[in-house]
Amino acid sequence: MASPQQPVIDPPSPVDDFTPTFYVGHHESKRPLPVTDFVLRQAQDVGYDMLTSPITSPHFHSRVLTLISEYLSELSLFEASDDAVTKSTPPAPIIPPLTPVDTPLTPGDTVSQLIAYSSPWIDLCSSDPLISNISRQVLNIEIAYTSFCGVGNIIIPGPRSYSSGSTNNDGLIQYARAIQEALTIGSYIQMAIHIPMYGNDEVKDMTGDLRPFARDHHSAAKGKSIKEIDLFETWDAWNLIRSVCKYNSRLSVALGLPRQLPIESLQSRWFAEPLRLLSFTPSTFLKNKGGHPVLSKSHQSLITRYMRLKLPPWLLLCDVGPIPGLDDPLHRTSTADGFPSPTAVADASRSVSPTPAEAVDLLSKESQKPRPKHKDPAAHLIYMRYLQRSQPLRTAIEKFGSGYQDYLQAPLQPLTDNLESVTYEVFEKDPVKYDWYERAIAQALSDWTEQRKPTSSPSGAVVIAVAGSGRGPLVTRALRASEMTGVPVELWAVEKNPNAYVLLQRHNEEDWGGVVKVVKSDMRAWKGPLRSTTGPIGQAITTTSPAPASPYGRVDILISELLGSFADNELSPECLDGVQHVLAPQFGISIPSSYTAHLTPVLAPRLHADISHRAITDNTATETPYVVMLHAIDYLATSVPDHPRIQEAWEFVHPLPATTLAVAEARRGGGVSGGGGGSMSGGDGANEHNTRSVRLKFVCKDRGVVNGLAGYFEAVLYDGGEAGKVELSTRPDTIDAKSKDMISWFPIFFPLKTPLYFPDDSELEVSIWRQTDDRKVWYEWLVEAFVMVGPDKRMRLGMSEMGSSRKVGCLM
Ligand SMILES: C[S@@+](CC[C@H](N)C(=O)[O-])C[C@H]1O[C@@H](n2cnc3c(N)ncnc32)[C@H](O)[C@@H]1O
């Protein structure tokens, strides 16, 4: 059964006028003027949407420096005196409150277009307790005042050291703790940590930097050795910070984009994180033939991809020059909304980015020569606006899913709930599913005739039952398949939803010429076609079935669509077992004939944050498998580069061997071979044949965090032998080959209560069970992380808690 909580889609407009809005901001590391109303208007006239503002002034900065140097001289006097032996060191100084000259910020109308930028000259990671203490005080004063002024967003420069290895990440932990504290000080403000995508661009020659003030014996990284770039190091640092901050929803990333983009796996990793801003410096840009700043092709695709996030990040142009018109009123030429000439935005002749060595060379050359004045001081902004206009239109799937990315939906109780008409309407919009069913039915009917199989109707028509007909689309398709193939059919529509039953009868009168037998029943209680009034549609070709002993006949083709996002999670196996008694014993077939569930571990920080938040008021939140259109996630295991490695968990095949059903029947009610808790999960063991379990190994090259398991399904509707299979798939790696553009199902997400961290080159073992107690079906799941410690030896690093959906299990 498809997910009936999917969005009800408005009819598509003839022209898709959607283009993602680019909110572009301007940041200057050394903004010379306070951001007044006038400055803001000037920036907006040129085409900027927002400006950053420092929170404190150079006056405050020098006040802090003076405080430190006074304290240090006091300390050296103290250390030289006799007191040093008897008394303890004087406590660190406290920064006195801000005065008007200490800050350019003030509450007012302008703050809504401002992003506060906290002081980059502090060092929260410093191993000198004095420096880290003062740095924390500066940050806290700035956060508190920004929050007081009503500014909604603040950018905090990332940690000054990123060492993620075992050598020294002391500073990082201090940084993370300071951010956690800051979140409690500004309790409404959104904080973005400014972090490079990879590497660490050391801030060079920052006047008044606190870092060099760290006293020698505290300074751990003197004479830092040159080390290889660890691509995932900055992500690792971010992961540490947000973990200490318990995935706080007000904490996000301002991601610094480098000139040379990293491997795709790192780009995907950041895509999954809460990106509030993407920042660009002049060095991110290339120059085209005309000398205009442009972005490489790979940057352009990255922006297109990132701007399709549910909450597209804002774009921050850093140090690209002053706001035109402010420094030089005569220079106010173009605004960014004007259309630039083609030469201005033509791609750079070398669309490939330079190698790191070339980039270093380029950068050093660029830094040596005096920076030329841009022809147009708004050139970078103009280019961004041009990119905005040239964004590709959304695909059909993007349009369908718009607004539903990463939106968690509670699971269904398909047997106890009756769907609304509007929900059926959503399924019926699927452009693929019904066509594929029609193909499968047509192929099955043709094969039936070709193979001269006997039918179960007195007239010789092939007897078809649509079990769970809903509003009848599969009935319509079965009639069409009969017409197309010329194979006569006798058609039964069985539905338990009394409201849908009304519509089925109406359709029969108005659209199907009254040829369909409509039955209101739970399929498991249906006894089969009542042999009296039904006549065939079209002409009979074979009539070899013996007259049934009972008044009820049999069904040749049983059609159903009871699949959930994880195939069997809405109890298709239990329903189809329950109706199998109506199927012709030797030749009867089921469409679908089989289905499989598939899994892969994923990083999904946004989902984790959302679920943790729900868990405050709902104690089943972390134990619920959710239906969700997964979007901002990262696949942790890949097979061929950049393709998710998704593995099959288990399969269900229909019809079951008669012996299996006979054993189940015998066990029901505590009969012979089971009963009385014979099954591990309770019950009589009558549904034991529908339990499953599997343990799957996933090799992960890059370190990461597992937040849960993404689940998909595949189904074989009909296997036509040489003619091929008619299949459905929701797996991202096979959907295009099997059922491209199918939209009826979103994936399922099995959450982990506590994220599980693992290092590079780990193995994740995923265990999952389908459990039943004859009244309910539920899942249990667990992830273990291992690293290889020798050629044949691996060590368990940790494991998740066992997830179990027993409390929210599906009632049979
Ligand atoms: C996903 S809907 C499919 C509806 C329709 N066949 C389609 O493809 O659009 C599944 C339908 O099966 C019905 N259903 C589920 N379990 C059933 C049962 N045990 N007996 C009869 N109908 C059932 C539901 O009420 C629902 O109408």
Automatic annotation (TrEMBL):
Residues 1-21, 329-376 are annotated as: Disordered. Keywords: Methyltransferase, S-adenosyl-L-methionine, Transferase. The keyword Isomerase does not apply. One of its GO terms (molecular function) is protein-arginine N-methyltransferase activity. Residues 594-801 form the PRMT5 oligomerisation domain. S-adenosyl-L-methionine binds at Y424, K433, Y434, E495, D522, M523. Residues 398-591 form the PRMT5 arginine-N-methyltransferase domain. Residues 47-389 form the PRMT5 TIM barrel domain. InterPro entries: Arg_MeTrfase, Arg_MeTrfase_PRMT5, PRMT5, PRMT5_C, PRMT5_TIM, SAM-dependent_MTases_sf. It comes from the Eukaryota. GO terms for biological process: methylation; regulation of DNA-templated transcription. PROSITE patterns: SAM_MT_PRMT. GO terms for cellular component: cytosol; nucleus. The active site is at E561 (proton donor/acceptor), E570 (proton donor/acceptor). It holds the Pfam family PRMT5_C. The record marks F427 as: Critical for specifying symmetric addition of methyl groups. Belongs to the class I-like SAM-binding methyltransferase superfamily. This is Protein arginine N-methyltransferase. It comes from Hyaloscypha bicolor E.
